[in-house]
């Protein structure tokens, strides 16, 4: 565990400020040549490849580790999650040339592997910076209101707790159990995000990921990776990458993907060791 918790909390507050601004967003810029600003990661069961929702569209990173944008949709995916084979949910802001779209896309859906997207709900109203899907339940963290929102049909939503969270994760065993990362530490809800209380006395984390099997994975704002075998009650530090995290995926069977400001890293032993899976192009 890192010794200077004050520095961690300060760094977490900076991440919250960067990720949860309530100012009116502007349409996203045109896409550069390379992948950058990763906001979400997921494994597509249709092909087993890693997909990344980024500031410039959705990218597929296949076994050759050469990312390719899946379509000419270059909007800013602030929220991105894989629901099933070629089935994705997202949120964010439209591309620069899409003047006919609202600045906040609400919940959008793709059923063709990210090649096309359809508005589903909350268009113009919500900007989900974190999206989770479990057994038909969608839970999103709306950055415009800092409210956790829940939907069972992707069309009607129930606002739940409001808190300055960075990320959320849902238990694979109990959809009523939701974790949220804040500058005060990881918070836990046992009533489907209606209320939150401290989950334990562990580190202040930026992102958490809860796989279908294996321990809970977390990363702090400085890039130190932690695991919890008891649902965030206690934490054990693993690898320290010293890079600012951008997205985290715990894919199960010990496989963890961590996107930072410089690379996508992969672990096959629940964060004990990492390899550089893909180095991002630097400006």
What does this structure look like?
The structure is a single chain. By secondary structure, this protein is mostly beta strands. The chain contains one helix and 24 strands. It has a domain at 163-282: Methylamine Dehydrogenase, Chain H. It has one helix spanning 5-19; strands at residues 38-43, 50-54, 57-61, 67-69, 76-84, 87-93, 107-110, 118-121, 128-134, 137-142, 147-151, 158-162, 167-170, 178-182, 185-189, 197-198, 207-209, 216-219, 224-228, 236-240, 245-252, 255-260, 263-267, 275-279. Keywords: Signal. This is Exo-alpha-sialidase. InterPro entries: Glycosyl_F510_1955-like, WD40/YVTN_repeat-like_dom_sf.
Count of strand segments: 24
What is the beta-strand fraction? 35-45%
The top-level CATH class of the domain at 163-282 is: Mainly Beta
As residue ranges, the low-confidence spans are 1-32
Q: What is the CATH topology descriptor of the domain at 163-282?
A: Methylamine Dehydrogenase, Chain H
Number of helices: 1
How do the helices and strands line up, and which of them pair or pack?
Layout: H1 5-19, E1 38-43, E2 50-54, E3 57-61, E4 67-69, E5 76-84, E6 87-93, E7 107-110, E8 118-121, E9 128-134, E10 137-142, E11 147-151, E12 158-162, E13 167-170, E14 178-182, E15 185-189, E16 197-198, E17 207-209, E18 216-219, E19 224-228, E20 236-240, E21 245-252, E22 255-260, E23 263-267, E24 275-279
Antiparallel strand pairs: 1-2, 2-3, 3-4, 5-6, 6-7, 7-8, 9-10, 10-11, 11-12, 13-14, 14-15, 15-16, 17-18, 18-19, 19-20, 21-22, 22-23, 23-24
